[in-house]
Amino acid sequence: MVNNQVPSSIKDEALVSKRRNQMIKGAVALFKEKGFHKTTTREIAKASGFSIGTLYEYIRKKEDVLFLVCDSIYQRVKERMEASIDTNETSLQNLVQAIRSYFQLMDGMQDEVLVMYQEVKSLSKDAQDYVLQKERDMVAMLEQVIVNSLSEKIPEADVALIANNIFVQGQMWGFRRWILKRSFTLDTYIERQTHLLLEGLSSQLKETQS
Amino acid sequence: MVNNQVPSSIKDEALVSKRRNQMIKGAVALFKEKGFHKTTTREIAKASGFSIGTLYEYIRKKEDVLFLVCDSIYQRVKERMEASIDTNETSLQNLVQAIRSYFQLMDGMQDEVLVMYQEVKSLSKDAQDYVLQKERDMVAMLEQVIVNSLSEKIPEADVALIANNIFVQGQMWGFRRWILKRSFTLDTYIERQTHLLLEGLSSQLKETQS
Amino acid sequence: MVNNQVPSSIKDEALVSKRRNQMIKGAVALFKEKGFHKTTTREIAKASGFSIGTLYEYIRKKEDVLFLVCDSIYQRVKERMEASIDTNETSLQNLVQAIRSYFQLMDGMQDEVLVMYQEVKSLSKDAQDYVLQKERDMVAMLEQVIVNSLSEKIPEADVALIANNIFVQGQMWGFRRWILKRSFTLDTYIERQTHLLLEGLSSQLKETQS
Amino acid sequence: MVNNQVPSSIKDEALVSKRRNQMIKGAVALFKEKGFHKTTTREIAKASGFSIGTLYEYIRKKEDVLFLVCDSIYQRVKERMEASIDTNETSLQNLVQAIRSYFQLMDGMQDEVLVMYQEVKSLSKDAQDYVLQKERDMVAMLEQVIVNSLSEKIPEADVALIANNIFVQGQMWGFRRWILKRSFTLDTYIERQTHLLLEGLSSQLKETQS
DNA sequence: GATGAATGAGCATTCATTCAT
DNA sequence: TATGAATGAATGCTCATTCAT
User: Between chains, do A176 and B168 touch, taking CB under 8 Å as contact?
Assistant: First the structure.
């Protein structure tokens, strides 16, 4: 699926898609290593496996690469969340499972998420808005799962807050690993965060037959 | 107090201190507005009130400015935390109060924290280590306050986790304001986060006579 | 008629001719608008109605397009001068008529002449010589008409000078329109320039029975 | 006198003036040789005797060099015309003298005028307007001299036309030398053009006691 | 100590031209 | 014949850093 926010002068859409994937893959690795600003377009071209001229057949400006990278990361995270999280199921188990899936996802896409985290602000306002909408969607998914897992209604704001906390704690496993890895593995991290959350919600939670 | 990590060719320490403060003040404003990479040394010099030549009498490289800025921010946050948080007091009230102080601090230094958040990765490994140590110190303060507020011992890892959660939630008020401000004011945000935390800890908390 | 100064890899001469005409038509419009140097080969191909690859089947280098354009303009001007000017007729009326025709021609081909005027110097020396020969031919035509209109012989140099003056005044109507249009329409311009010229020549002119 | 249409980041106005003169001198030579578009900024810097970085301390964009060059040429032509032409004197001799001075000037600044002629269209609309105003001023000077040399009034349009003819004939000596030099030297060219003009005006001219 | 002119390596971007299909 | 994807040399411009005054 070609991202039409970024025009290309190449007509063959399948090719555009293929080349942009090469580009994204190469760019993520570089951005991870040295950040967007310290990465040159030539390096991106080289890491993508084609020439600088070819790079510019598929984008207009360097910032387009960043946009493509951020968008692709958000898209992949969103898709994988949609695949692994059931927003209809109403059991508590479903919330626990959703958190686990999401944290595992964050663990696996750690580098990508870190890149995204540090560089979104380098995008133009428009591009940021476009990309952040996906973040809102993801938080909304978590909110739905939370609501479904509760037996009593709690204030909307609290649901939003919990969803945001979970969301950020997932990312935190990526961008604060330097401090967390002293005390946790991914599994213990998931387990303890879940534990803490459920304790806080205990009185409103649905009964679960495990 | 002159930061000796960054050598200056000027002998007069008082002057170095004064000039660097001008520099930091000007630079924070610029980094906030356009980020470290898009800010030029000329702009920094101008915003600091002196010439480009003079700027380089007080630093060696552009990165030194970033280091000075980050260090100064951490330093100020740390100092203000130390001033408002009592790590000896053992009441639950003290934890509540510490959280409130810290969140208010984050609210007031929102821009600075945002800058720091996005730009630390641009520092050299050494500079990052130096600066992150201050972060570790702050988390440690929170850990101490948490431990003091509990009647029973809980695993060290849990203490670390809670401290990290609080720490990040404070920053989150700054860097995710775009999504949080739909549901919260600073006060309601503090109140609900505190509420959630205490619910989760309720069984281990010290009794409080309010 | 295919211009053999510019080789093509296509064999079918009729096709070459057709494609080059498309090319010239498209290119003139572009050169007029933005000049030769700011026009890209891709734009020329697009304006010509075929692909960049096809463009290069009919020329060797970008400069060939400019040559083709200049040559075509000169050719058209020359042909139309030959069609409307009678170099055998010896009346004064014929000179007056020749000037009128030529000025009207310049008015109609204003854009083309302007393009040619500004861009010939971008041609290689050889191409310039080739193209300027046509200009010499046109001036020679004017010289002939002038000589025919005189009753007495005047120095060759004077004839050349007058022919050049007429020639340039015709072009001047194109490239200095910004200043002339405040005082003249095409008709008054023709009338006054003719008047001035005839005054200067009055004593040598042939009698005319109008 | 520093041209304020083009901002410089250097404060010392005398220096700006000096460097820009170096720049103009170097650039004219290059533009003359290969045209504005085929001249690189590096070449301009080199020909000016300083580095590319320094060049850009005195201008903002490459086009600024062209503007500076065109403006300087017009300015010099205008100044020298003002110095050698008397717009108050009312004798016929004065017109003859003015033409001679102007043609000699064009002869001496041939290269500059050629450059200007071919490249003004590369300037932005604004810059063109600014520069062409100087041309209007010069034509106006010629008009004044013409009017002063006449005993009877002739239509304003005719005065404008004659002034323009003289103006263009002066330039023509530069840009059509390839065809004129077969029949003329500068002196004979001046003499014959003047002769032609005076013949045309004879009945309206002031008596001159030579 | 302060200034700001000079430097040139470095970077993003363009575009004429080629060539496999 | 026609196409258009690929190439990379070339170019305009920026900016951190130095150093003479």
Answer: yes
Chain D partners (3+ C-beta pairs within 8 A): C
Q: Which chain B residue lies closest to A34 (C-alpha atoms)?
A: B122
Q: What pLDDT score was predicted for residue C209?
A: 43
Nearest-CA distance A14 → chain B (Å)? 35
Exposed/middle/buried for B64, CB within 10 Å: 0-12, 13-18, 19+?
buried
Highest mean pLDDT among A19-23, A88-92, B89-93, B131-135: A19-23
Structural Rg of chain A based on CA atoms? 19
Beta-carbon contacts of D112 under 8 Å, excluding residues fewer than 6 positions away, are D28, D32, D73, D76
A180 to chain B, any CB pair closer than 8 A? The answer is: yes
In this predicted structure, the answer to whether residue C28 has a pLDDT above a threshold of 50 is yes
| A136-164 pLDDT tens trace | 999 999 999 999 999 888 999 999 999 99
CA distance A205 to chain B (A): 13
pLDDT for residue D69: 96
Q: How confident is the model at residue C16 (pLDDT cuts 50, 70, 90)?
A: very high
Strand F, nucleotides < 7 Å from a protein CB: these are 1-20
Query: What single DSSP character describes residue B205?
Result: B
CB B84 within 8 A of CB B105: yes
The per-residue pLDDT for range C48-59, each reduced to its tens digit, is 999 999 999 999
Q: Count H helices and E strands in chain A, helices first.
A: 10, 0
User: Residue C124: what pLDDT?
Assistant: 92
Mark the nucleotides of strand E covered by protein, meaning any atom under 7 Å from a CB: 1-20
Q: Which has more confidence, C119 or B23?
A: B23
Q: How far is CA C101 from each of CA B112, C78, C117, rounded to the nearest angstrom? A: 76, 12, 20
Residue C34: CB less than 7 A from any atom in strand E? no
For residue B36 the two structure tokens come to 């470290």
Tell me which chain D residues have a C-beta less than 8 angstroms from the C-beta of C168: 168-169, 172, 176
Closest chain A C-alpha to B157 CA, distance in angstroms: 6
Q: DSSP string of A135-148?
A: HHHHHHHHHHHHHH
With 60 as the cut, is the pLDDT of residue B210 above it?
Answer: no
Residue B149 exposure: Cα atoms within 13 Å on the Cβ side:
28
- Token pair in block for residue A183: 């005390």
Cα separation, D148 vs D150, whole angstroms: 6
List the helix and strand counts (H, then E) for chain D: 10, 0
Instruction: Answer left, alpha or beta for residue B49, where phi above 0 means left and psi between -120 and 50 means alpha.
Output: left
Ramachandran angles phi, psi of B184, nearest 5°: -135, 150
- Mean pLDDT of the A18-46 span: 96
Is the C-beta of residue C46 closer than 7 Å to nucleic acid chain E? Answer: no
Structure-block tokens of residue B191: 């109140």
pLDDT digits (tens, 9 = 90+) for B114-166: 888 888 889 999 999 998 899 999 999 999 999 999 988 899 999 999 999 99
> Which 12-71 residues of chain B approach strand E with CB closer than 7 Å?
12, 15, 19, 50-54, 56-57
Q: How many CA atoms lie within 13 A of C30 on its CB side?
A: 22
Q: Which residues of A spanning 143-182 put their CB closer than 7 angstroms to strand E? A: none
Burial of A123 (0-12, 13-18, 19+ CB in 10 A): buried
pTM: 0.91
